[in-house]
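A favour between colleagues. Tell me how you read the following sequence-structure pair.

===
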Amino acid sequence: MIIIDYSYLSMQKRFKSEADTIIIGRPSDEHAVDLDLTPDATVSRHHARLIYENGDYWLEDLSSRSGTWVNSQKITLKPAGTGDCITLGQTNLTVQQIEAKSPPPANGLDTQQVNIKDGVLTARCGPASNPQICCWPKPRRDHQRYSPPPGCLLRSGHGPEQHGNC
């Protein structure tokens, strides 16, 4: 969850969200936004985006007219942190709180890591009620992909899912 206080002229508001992607700007018939900074006309329709990825929120400028500023520095992409002062147009935003999300279950499967030895990752996987041991061998030189058995899945948290054979 992220909590942001923001102000434009004398108007002050608070925004809370648990979404993975938050579009910040001004809405129109063609453009929906999650954090509406109307009536600040100096804010672009799609001005910036907050993205939750790998346990962090990232702030990205979406090619806005006036730019996105964090702690008085113009940015294109930057991690967002508690206490950061963000300026979009004439609106000032302050990140009040960021809470890390619990990792989602991998399709309801238990993916607790068990062992890594000689380049092979062994993990308990499968439904929590009936776990099995799955092994992820070292990649072969031909980079052929391994097909996992049903119910065998591991989320690495740093990229695509990695599969293996049990």
